[in-house]
Write a structure and sequence with these properties.
This is DNA primase. By secondary structure, this protein is of the alpha+beta class. It has 5 domains: 108 residues, Zinc finger, CHC2-typedomain (DNA Primase, Chain A); 122 residues, DNA primase, catalytic core, N-terminal domain (DNA primase DNAg catalytic core, N-terminal domain); 127 residues, Dna Topoisomerase Vi A Subunit, Chain: A, domain 2 (3-Layer(aba) Sandwich); 66 residues; 145 residues, Orthogonal Bundle (DNAb Helicase, Chain A). It is built from 27 helices and 16 strands. The strands form 4 sheets. Strands 1-2-3-4-5 form a 5-stranded antiparallel sheet, sandwiched between helices. It has a 5-stranded mixed sheet with strand order 13-12-14-15-16, sandwiched between helices. The chain has a 4-stranded antiparallel sheet with strand order 6-9-10-11, covered by helices on one side. A hairpin with a 5-residue loop joins strand 4 and strand 5. It is globular. The chain starts with 6 loop residues before the first helix and ends with a helix.
Length: 623
């Protein structure tokens, strides 16, 4: 028999968790006044517009206008249904829930769950979870996985680490499709999963074969993709094969091990960028658990924004060879373009990658190097620009100094600039004043280029359509301002509630506010004696109405209710309601006349509509 999670269980979970504690597992927050602010996890931004009100237990983004309570936050960020979000919040907040409700949610056996529970996304997550379990079982429990298991052991990975990261093996004999066939799957959804390739005859075949499998997880720790590494070299197959992009997975957004690393950031206070999965795993084994890696590609802007939400400090620990150093430079430039991070570089000797360094020098030495021996950005650039140059040659010297001074010019730290100018002057036996003069010219040139680019960006923005979700703040009419204030007072002040309830003819002008008013009646009647915005958000459920509630709660209305204020709002709304009804009626008649091609009636109704709109405007102006 299907059951929904009882209201008292939902209330219990909501009351026992602090939304800030949950949000901080995904976003780095800082206090400003009574609210907490951070970079919005739902869109890319450079200025923090995402806020949490700890007292009211709600979140809101002033740019994309997403908002709600703790359950809504988890629904949005982890793409979960409401029942799934309740279970997830309980788990994150260490709140105990009866196992029967957890089991019901896992099997989709809950009444009232929204459509997301049975959507493509939910099903695709199940497919990936089951595939990860199968690949892992093959690796650790079957003869088919012996060679792959020996390979991983040979790379220094322990059984515990293999278990923790759920590493697996996809054998040559295509076991995944038969495995799903036993469960009578939806083959259209299997096609969308990225786990299979479609053959010319329309049949499906396992995408991954003879590969060590690395599950790729989202920020919530759910498997959304795979990366498979060949055991044997091949002239025709890539060494690493990633899942294609799906409804679950975009390789430009995802970072390997981010789900675990973001939790370590709280104690380590920084995050470490590695190039490869094996580097992350080797570092993890050495006790460095705050490491992440991109998906076999250069670091992307989307990944940088993801990092910015959890840490302001980033260390880059890429391979010590030339490609690794080039990648380090690109990452530094990308991170520097956002001007949000304190960045340093962990440089490895002998062109070693982190995995090789650990195997050669040991875990303890690597751990010490990571925590005690980072170099600054400028120190890296001074070393980087030496590559391929003979600094005894005058031409190479001048080119080197030009490159290095351009980087020094970007620093706003006066002491750092002075330090490196002194080093250059001593090393090349130059007059420091000459270096300072050259630095001044470079900065002047950079400012001109920056101003030109800013003007160019302004022109480009004028020609680009703006995302409607990121528009400027909404400006409300006088009537709607009155409705918003009155609704807020109704919700928060019982005397206002009673006053309005005793006016039989009262109704809000705009449908959304009237709907919320009626829902509030049901909310208070449903044994909710005192208003609780977080609980009311769950009661309302509809996203558009929830956004209105959040915007009301995040507004700076005065705490005290004034009788005059309430009376003025009522007067405005009661005067506007009949006029709005007339306007709406004329609009309906006008549309009907246009369909009938009755031109005389169209003209007459148009004149009448203009008169009504003028009366409305005059009424507003007179107030």
């Amino acid at each position: 028999m299907s059951r929904r999670i009882p209201e008292e269980v939902i209330d219990d979970v909501r009351s026992q968790v602090n939304i800030l504690d949950i949000v901080e597992q995904y976003v780095q927050m800082h206090r400003s006044g009574k609210n907490w602010f951070g970079l919005c996890p739902f869109h890319t931004e450079k200025t923090a517009s995402f806020s949490v009100n700890e007292q009211k237990q709600i979140f809101n983004c002033f740019s994309c206008h997403r908002g709600g309570n703790v359950f809504k936050f988890i629904m949005e960020i982890e793409n979960l249904s409401f029942p799934e979000a309740v279970i997830r919040v309980a788990d994150l907040g260490n709140v105990t829930i009866d196992q029967e409700y957890i089991d019901d949610v896992k099997t989709g056996n809950t009444n009232g769950a929204d459509d997301e529970a049975n959507s493509d996304v939910s099903v695709l997550k199940d497919y990936h979870r089951e595939a990860a379990e199968l690949y892992h079982h093959i690796l650790v429990n079957t003869q088919l996985g012996e060679e792959a298991l020996n390979y991983l052991h040979g790379r220094g990975l322990t059984d515990d680490l293999i278990e923790e990261f759920q590493l697996g093996y996809a054998p040559a004999n295509k076991l995944l499709l038969p495995f799903f066939d036993e469960h009578q799957p939806d083959y259209q959804k299997l096609r969308k999963s990225g786990l299979f390739v479609e053959l010319r005859d329309g049949n499906l075949s396992d995408r991954f074969r003879e590969r060590v499998m690395f599950p790729i997880r989202n920020a919530a720790g759910q498997v959304v993709a795979f990366s498979g590494r060949l055991l044997q070299k091949s002239e025709t197959q890539p060494k690493y094969l990633n899942s294609p992009e799906t409804d679950l997975f975009n390789k430009r957004d995802v970072l390997f091990n981010f789900d675990k690393a973001k939790n370590s950031v709280r104690t380590e206070k920084n995050i470490i960028l590695f190039e490869g999965f094996m580097d992350v795993l080797a570092a993890y084994r050495a006790g460095v658990k705050n490491g992440v890696a991109s998906m076999g590609t250069s670091l992307t802007e989307q990944q940088v924004y993801t990092l910015a939400r959890v840490s302001k400090k980033i260390s880059i620990c890429y391979d010590g060879d030339e490609p690794g150093q080039n990648a380090t430079k690109r990452a530094l430039e990308l991170l520097g373009s956002l001007d949000r991070f304190e960045v340093n570089v962990i440089s490895l000797p002998e062109k070693l990658d982190p995995d090789e360094y650990i195997r050669k020098y040991g875990e303890e030495k690597f751990y010490t190097k990571v925590h005690s021996s980072p170099e600054s950005k400028l120190a890296f650039y001074l070393r980087y620009y030496e590559q391929g140059r003979n600094l005894d040659n005058e031409h190479d010297q001048l080119a080197y100094l030009d490159d290095v001074l351009k980087k020094i010019a970007q620093s706003t730290d006066v002491i750092e600039v002075d330090l490196y100018l002194n080093r250059l002057a001593q090393r090349f036996q130059l007059d420091k004043n000459a270096l300072e003069a050259q630095l001044k010219e470079i900065r002047s040139s950079q400012r001109k280029k920056s101003n030109f680019q800013q003007q160019k960006n302004v022109l480009q923005k004028r020609s680009i359509a703006i995302d409607p979700k990121l528009q400027a703040p909404v400006h409300y009419s006088i009537i709607e301002q009155a409705e918003r204030l009155l609704l807020y007072r109704i919700l928060h002040d019982h005397s206002t509630w009673l006053k309005v309830a005793n006016i039989p003819e009262f109704s809000f002008v705009h449908e959304n506010y009237q709907t919320l008013y009626l829902l509030a009646q049901g909310f208070f009647f449903n044994q909710h004696q005192a208003y609780d915005s977080a609980a009311f958000l769950d009661f309302v459920q509809e996203s558009a109405l929830q956004e209105i509630i959040v915007s009301l709660e995040m507004n700076n209305f005065a705490k005290q209710t004034s009788e005059q204020e309430v009376s003025d709002c009522l007067k405005l709304i009661l005067q506007a309601s009949p006029l709005e009804d007339q306007i709406e009626s004329v609009k309906i008649q006008l549309a009907r006349a246009k369909r009938m091609n009755d031109q005389d009636t169209v003209v007459a109704l148009t004149v009448k509509l203009i008169e009504l709109l003028q009366r409305k405007q005059a009424g507003i102006s007179a107030i």
